[in-house]
Write a structure and sequence with these properties.
Structural class: alpha/beta
Number of domains: 2
Number of helices: 21
Radius of gyration: 22 Å
Distance between the termini: 57 Å
Bound molecules: D-mannonic acid
Number of strands: 12
Largest sheet: 6 strands, parallel
CATH architecture of the largest domain: 3-Layer(aba) Sandwich
Helix content: 40-55%
CATH topology of the largest domain: Rossmann fold
C-alpha cells in the first residue's frame, strides 16, 4: 500500500500532516524541488498553518521527485534521526508538483504571493567573485536569445514577465540557497538579465513590485536513500517512495521584506528580522565552512560520510580549531547567540551517526562554495594581520582533491564542479597548483597554502591533520 490521501488514515495519527492536504490554496511557488526544500521550507510553511499558502513545487532539473510524488498525491514523509532515535511526519503542504513550463505560468497566478528558490550555488550562473551574471555562459546566452529558458534566473524572469502581463500584482522572490546576501544577489542577476535581454520595461515593473529578501536556511538534509525510504515506510505502515531523512535541528532566519504578504513562518519557529546578515555569515563560515573543511580532508582520507570524519579525533580537533581560531573571530554574533555554544552544538550535529551525509555531496561545487565559506575567513583574518591556518588547510585540501583527482591511497576521486576540467592538473606541484587556482586571492595566503598542499601531498590528509593538531 502506497502513501496517498486515500491511505493517510492508515498512517499513525501523530504522523499525519499538520496542514492539508484538503482546503489548501496555492500561495507559494518553489523553484527547485529538491530534498532540502521539502525537509526545510516546506515543513516551516506547513507548520505556519495558513491554508492560503500551499506550495506548488517546480522541478528544475530532474523529474524524479515529481514521479515519486504524483502517485502519492504529493504527500511525503520527513524522517528525523538522531543516533538511534527516529521520528516521522507526513508533510501535506504541496498542492502540486510541476515542470518548469507550468511553474513559470503559475508565477502569474494572483493567489501566488511568494516564490522561494533552492537551485544550488552554481545554479545562479554568476561569477562568485563579482556577483555578476555570467553572460558568456552558453545557457545564459541561449536564454537571453529567447528560447524557452532553462537557467533559474531565466525561468524566474519569464515567470515575472508572465505575472506582469497578467497584472497579477506584487510578489516576493526569496533565495534560500547558501549564499551571502542571496536576496541582493538575485535582484542584481534578475536586473542584469532584463537589461541584457532588452527588457527595461519589465525591469521598471519589477523594481517597485518585487521584493527580494535574503534568508539563512539551516538543516542537514543528505540526498535521500533507499534505506531512508525503507525506514520511513516501516514507521508509517504504508510505502513512501518520496521519504527523506534529516536531523531534528532546523533553523530559518528571514529578512522581513515582503511585497504581498507571507506565511506566518514565525509561528513555526522561524526568526523574521530586518537584518539576516549576521546569521548568514555565521552559518556559512561556521557550519558550511567546517563542512567543506571536513569534506575535502575526509575525501582525501578515503572517508565516505561526515560522521566517519567526526569519528577521527584529529579531524574533530582541526574542525574545532577552525571554528574557534579562524571563523569565530571574523564574526559579529547575531543577537543572543554565543559563538562557542553555536560551534559546540554544530560539532554534535555533524557527529550524528544516523545521517550518513555523503562527503561527495558537500565536496561538490567548491568553486562556488568556498568563496562563501573559507575564502572570506582567510581574507578577514589577513586584514587583521592574522593567519587563518585551518581555513587555509581546507582550501589546500580542496586544491589537492580537484587538482590530483586521487585520494591519498591512489583511488580515483571525482569532485563534481562546473569547472572540474580546468581544475584538474595531476602533474603540477604544490606551488603551481596554488598559483593556478588561487586566482584573485590575496597574496598573503600563498605561502600558507603552498605549505599545506605540500604536506597534504607528502603525508596525506590524516597524518597532516594529526601533526597539525599536535603543533597547535
Ligand atoms: C552542505 C550544506 O552540501 C553542502 O555543501 O554544507 O548543504 C549543509 O548541509 C546545509 O547548508 C546545512 O544547513
Amino acid at each position: 500500500m502506497r502513501l496517498s490521501r486515500r491511505t493517510l488514515s492508515a498512517v499513525p495519527e501523530e504522523a499525519r500532516p499538520a496542514l492539508g492536504p484538503d482546503g489548501l490554496r496555492t500561495g507559494l511557488v518553489h523553484l527547485g524541488l529538491g530534498a532540502f526544500h521539502r525537509a526545510h521550507q516546506a515543513v516551516y510553511t506547513e507548520d505556519a498553518g495558513d491554508p492560503a499558502f500551499g506550495v506548488c513545487g517546480v522541478t528544475m532539473r530532474s523529474m524524479a521527485a515529481a514521479e515519486a510524488l504524483a502517485p502519492q498525491d504529493h504527500l511525503y514523509s520527513v524522517l528525523e534521526r538522531d543516533g538511534a532515535h527516529a521520528s516521522i511526519r507526513v508533510v501535506g503542504v504541496l498542492t502540486a508538483v510541476v515542470g518548469p513550463e507550468v511553474g513559470i505560468a503559475r508565477i502569474a497566478d494572483p493567489d501566488v504571493r511568494v516564490i522561494t528558490m533552492t537551485v544550488t550555488e552554481p545554479g545562479y550562473r554568476h561569477d562568485p567573485a563579482t556577483g555578476r551574471l555570467r553572460a558568456d555562459d552558453p545557457e545564459v546566452a541561449a536564454d537571453l536569445a529567447g528560447r524557452p529558458p532553462v537557467t533559474a534566473v531565466g525561468r524566474l524572469v519569464a515567470g515575472l514577465r508572465a505575472r506582469r502581463a497578467a497584472d497579477a500584482g506584487p510578489v516576493t522572490v526569496m533565495s534560500c540557497d547558501n549564499l551571502v546576501g542571496g536576496g541582493r544577489l538575485l535582484a542584481g542577476l534578475v536586473a542584469e538579465h532584463c537589461r541584457l535581454g532588452r527588457e527595461e520595461d519589465l525591469l521598471a515593473w519589477i523594481e517597485p513590485n518585487v521584493a527580494f529578501p535574503s534568508s539563512m536556511v539551516d538543516r542537514i538534509v543528505p540526498a535521500a536513500t533507499a534505506a531512508d525510504r525503507a525506514a520511513a515506510s516501516r514507521l508509517l505502515g504504508v510505502e513512501d517512495r518520496a521519504a527523506l531523512g534529516t536531523e531534528p535541528f532546523r533553523q530559518w532566519v528571514i529578512e522581513d521584506r515582503f511585497a504581498a504578504g507571507r506565511p506566518p513562518w514565525e509561528r513555526a519557529g522561524a526568526i523574521v528580522t530586518p537584518d539576516v546578515a549576521p546569521y548568514e555569515t555565521m552559518k556559512l563560515r561556521m557550519l558550511n565552512g567546517v563542512h567543506s573543511l571536513l569534506a575535502y580532508l575526509g575525501a582525501l582520507a578515503g572517508l565516505r560520510t561526515v560522521d566517519q570524519a567526526m569519528a577521527r579525533p584529529d579531524l574533530v580537533e582541526v574542525a574545532r580549531r577552525y571554528l574557534e581560531h579562524d571563523a569565530a573571530p571574523t564574526l559579529t554574533p547575531p543577537p543572543g547567540v554565543d559563538l562557542a555554544d553555536y560551534g559546540a552544538r554544530l560539532l554534535t550535529r555533524l557527529a550524528n551517526p544516523a545521517l550518513r551525509h555523503p562527503i561527495a555531496q558537500i565536496a561538490a561545487d567548491g568553486t562556488h562554495k568556498l568563496p562563501q565559506r573559507l575564502l572570506p575567513v582567510i581574507r578577514d583574518r589577513l586584514a587583521h594581520g592574522a593567519e587563518a591556518r585551518w581555513a587555509a588547510l581546507g582550501v589546500a585540501a580542496w586544491m589537492r582533491c580537484v587538482a590530483a583527482g586521487r585520494a591519498d591511497d591512489g583511488a580515483p576521486l571525482t569532485v563534481a564542479d562546473p569547472s572540474a576540467e580546468r581544475l584538474r592538473m595531476p602533474e603540477a606541484g604544490p606551488a603551481e597548483v596554488v598559483d593556478r587556482l588561487m586566482g584573485r586571492e590575496p597574496a598573503g595566503s600563498r605561502a600558507l597554502l603552498v605549505d599545506w598542499l605540500f604536506r597534504l601531498t607528502a603525508d596525506g590528509a590524516l597524518a597532516t591533520a594529526r601533526a597539525a593538531a599536535r603543533e597547535g
